[in-house]
Amino acid sequence: MANYYQILEVGKDASVDQIRKAFRKKAKECHPDINKDQGSKEKFQKLNEAHQILTDPIKKRQYDLRLKNGIVITKVYYRPATTKSQPTGQKRWVRYVRKKPEPETPLEKMFDKILFYLLLLVGVYGIAFGLYRMFISPPENPDIRPVNGLIGGFVFTALLLLFYQRRGKNTASSGRS
């Protein structure tokens, strides 16, 4: 097992800055573009491997434990990230998202209808109460405006009807495909 500390010529207690400085110094000496020797490429790869391990605290801790306990690992394999992996993941996500929804059970359909009609009743009640407060029994306090309740009831009911209608169209179209 290669001793990364010896490759970089630093002590085991060297800081990350010291390791980086030693790496830069050694990299200038053995970079394959600068040094045309036969083994400069392999030497530079070992140097780069040592730098990657010793500057990452987790990898360094694991390496130190292996070095201390004498566990020999012949080669460290790195798999570089590719840009091709991302579209594949996106394709999987699109397939997941476009999956047909599970059909609703009769109980779910019944619950949806009951909930819709209850909320519709709340909206209509809000409109009716707003009209009642506006025309039949105006409030004694002038700060209370029955128009706000009336507008709120109309908006709530309109949105409820709009989204319930859209939901019905979406489930009908997804059920056909």
Mean pLDDT: 79
Sum up the overall morphology in one term: elongated
SSE succession = HHHHHHH
Gyration radius, in Å:
35 Å
Strand content: under 5%
Low-confidence stretches: none
Distance between termini? 60 Å
How many individual helices?
A: 7
> How many beta-strand elements?
0
Q: Biggest sheet: strands, sense, closure?
A: none
Helix content: over 70%
What oligomerization state is this entry in?
A: single chain
Structural class: mainly alpha
* Whole-number total of structural domains: 2
Plain-language structure description:
The chain has helices at 4-8, 16-30, 40-55, 57-69, 85-97, 106-136, 146-176. The protein has 7 helices and no strands. It is elongated and about 100 Å long. The relative contact order is 0.07. The protein is mainly alpha-helical and 177 residues long. The chain folds into 2 domains: 4-69, Helix Hairpins (Orthogonal Bundle), CATH 1.10.287; 106-176. Helix content is 70%, strand content 0%. The longest helix is centred in the last third of the chain and has 31 residues, at 106-136. Helix 2 (16-30) runs antiparallel to helix 3.
Characteristics:
single chain; 177 residues; mainly alpha
Q: How do you describe this structure in short?
A:
The chain is built from seven helices and no strands. With 177 residues, the protein is mostly helical.
